[in-house]
């Protein structure tokens, strides 16, 4: 789709389910717009460069040497994921 935003969230779907959603006559939506990161901004996505990938490898080695914790998702794998694959990943690791 040719739209200027990354995603749209209709918030009532996070708080209500089933008939409650259908019965609610009003809604609130948020649109997320991407922008190129600049110094001083909060980084939201991995920046895959030599320095950051090297740092990730150090953290991964440290995490792999400790079996008390299970790390998963974007921060653990230093990858961008949509939420559905993250949930699937967690469920598969839980088994």
TrEMBL record:
Transmembrane segments annotated in the record for this chain: none
One Pfam assignment: GLF
GO cellular component, one term: cytosol
Residue intervals of the UDP-galactopyranose mutase C-terminal domain: 2-80
GO molecular function per UniProt: flavin adenine dinucleotide binding; UDP-galactopyranose mutase activity
Name listed for the protein in its UniProt record: UDP-galactopyranose mutase
Organism: Pseudopedobacter saltans
Taxonomic classification: Bacteria, Pseudomonadati, Bacteroidota, Sphingobacteriia, Sphingobacteriales
């Amino acid at each position: 789709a040719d739209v200027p935003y990354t995603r749209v969230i209709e918030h009532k779907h996070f708080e209500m389910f089933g008939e409650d959603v259908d019965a609610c006559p009003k809604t609130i939506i948020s649109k997320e717009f991407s922008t190129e990161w600049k110094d001083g901004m909060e980084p939201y996505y991995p920046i895959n460069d030599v320095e950051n990938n090297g740092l990730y490898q150090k953290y991964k080695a440290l995490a792999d040497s400790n079996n008390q914790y299970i790390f998963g998702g974007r921060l653990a794998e230093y990858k961008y994921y949509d939420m559905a694959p993250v949930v699937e990943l967690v469920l598969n690791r839980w088994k």
